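Re: the request from the purification team.
They wanted to know what the chain is likely to look like in 3D before they choose a buffer screen. I agreed to run a prediction and write the result into the notebook, where they can find it.
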Amino acid sequence: MPPLSREQIAGRLAATGYVADPELATTLLLMEMLARPLLIEGAAGVGKTAIAYALAAVHETRLIRLQCYEGLDQASALYEWNYQRQLLAIKAREGESGARHAEEIEEALFSERYLLERPLLAAIREERPPVLLIDEIDRADEEFEAFLLELLADFQISIPELGTIRARSIPRVVLTSNATRELSDALRRRCLYHYLDYPTIERESAILRARLPGLGIDLAGQVARLVAAIRKEQLRKTPGVAESLDWAAALLGLGIGDLSEAPETLYETLVCVLKTHEDRAQIDRTAFSHLIAKVA
């Protein structure tokens, strides 16, 4: 099957509800053409993870997600043995003796039957290339990052008891980072790179309408402009696209068709957007009224 064009990728992403700008569509095209992992950096809430889900929908394939965290080790990411089932199997064969029986038991215990796949092993064993999402790689430590580099280079895994398992298909790999620590140059060289910023007002309005079909064009534009204005405030937690979607859905559910309507109710719906006590205190009713006057 020939690769999709940039326009086709953008169109299919839009059909899933993800509105991509031309630069991102080009990046995804190059990712497909060069068969390279894609590293996406940006602030929390800009839609980095959603790209991987949309990409899986575009290619009609499985998405496999590895959520990174401090202390993540190879066993949690690759595979583990089902020790409970192994113990039960040992107990079931108690009483058997002899070297041959011992070898047979050991061979049976460390077989596919007792192997627990974790995301990385599952990804390379898929017949159809999946989308492998390695989410928040910056939260994992440098040792895990080095191991990941080796895997991305060879797409094979060595299991001492079973031997080397080579990829049945090469997954499309998307790595995300919130830049909480600096990633290695080696990882950056291995990947294509895209920085995802908060969307423009026009693009955020299009996202809202794509994800909420009942939302009118005027209200979508007002919400996008107001959220953009809120992001310019010195907040502890800047609202992301997910907060914009929640807020627009709340307004839609409450029957508010214009931001000039029901100012008290509108202010109370800020629970969808402002997620800390400090931010709620900073944008009080007076400050919110000033913001509304600018965008409504």
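For the purification team: The chain has 15 helices and nine strands.
Please add any questions underneath this entry.
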